[in-house]
Amino acid sequence: MALLTPDDLQNMTDALVENDNLVCTLTGLSLDRLCADIYKTEKKNEKIAIIPVTAGCGIIGRFSESLLFTVQHFGMDGFITKNTDIAGFYEAVTSGADIILMADDLAFVAYNLKSQKIAHNQICTGRVYAEILCRMPTPDAAAKEVLVIGLGKVGTPALETFLDYGYSISVFDADSRRLNEVVGGSGYRCPPNSSGKIKKYDPNAGCKFDKIFEATPAADTVPECCLTNGSVLSTPGIPCGLSKTLQEKYNVKIVQEPLGIGTLSMLYAVFDKK
Ligand code: NAI
Ligand code: PYL
Ligand code: MG
């Protein structure tokens, strides 16, 4: 998994606030209302413990602080444990935490200690960034078309969401084996390609997309030929897959933030049902 750096998180607080406003403009729902509606859950004064983890590449500067900002920005009660790792887990439980957030190099999870619900960052991130596109009003209800670039652990759960909403999905991944797996509807976590709803993106076909989802660790993955004026790009991928030049040329609206949106999605995934 591509690991965040302290630099990635430098402007995270501003980015979360700006993206919350943009999502509200695009979908009519603030990020927390959107997540409540996705999972049909609600927050109920849960106490959220954030445990810094030293395993693997260790503590990432601004990581725990960014999680705490997210929790508090959306009106929840949170704290960072003074201890790390197992001692931090003990501290969280004995301090009365209801939910813990913790990440090593392979997994970032939210765990509800009372209900035992668990959520994974990659799945919840893919879901919420896809839901943002699905919940935007589409002028022509029949034209449910989306381009998905990057079919890894974040992009694949997004496909399930697009299929649930009845989208026709054009897909691209630099790894041709992965691309073929997804189009064939087999392989790791691949949703079945029901009724040929998932097809390979053909850059020579001249298709333009109002809605684009990107989840890769590479830059410049969004080609000019897929853009139209006012396209919306929903992208958890770091760095951004669209150059500044193309963003300005096509007036692209970009939903992108390095950590908070996915974290909020994880928290609502483990809250209790409404
Ligand atoms: P992954 O490694 O599972 O999947 C990435 C996919 O992108 C792979 O299938 C790879 O073949 C493909 N890819 C790489 N370069 C490409 C290119 N130039 N063109 C097209 N496809 C390309 O990674 P994962 O976990 O799905 O993460 C994707 C990105 O999302 C990473 O940048 C990661 O840091 C970021 N991320 C962001 C989060 C957020 O909250 N903003 C949360 C989780 C991940
Ligand atoms: C959750 C992010 C999104 C992108 N890459 C993922 C990542 O950076 N994971 C590693 C998180 C490690 C956190 C570190 C700490 O500070 O507690 N162990
Ligand atoms: Mg990218």
TrEMBL record:
It comes from the Archaea. Residues 10-118 form the Pyrrolysine biosynthesis protein PylD N-terminal domain. Pfam families: PylD_N. NCBIfam families: pyrrolys_PylD (TIGR03911). This is Pyrrolysine biosynthesis protein PylD N-terminal domain-containing protein. It comes from Methanolapillus africanus.
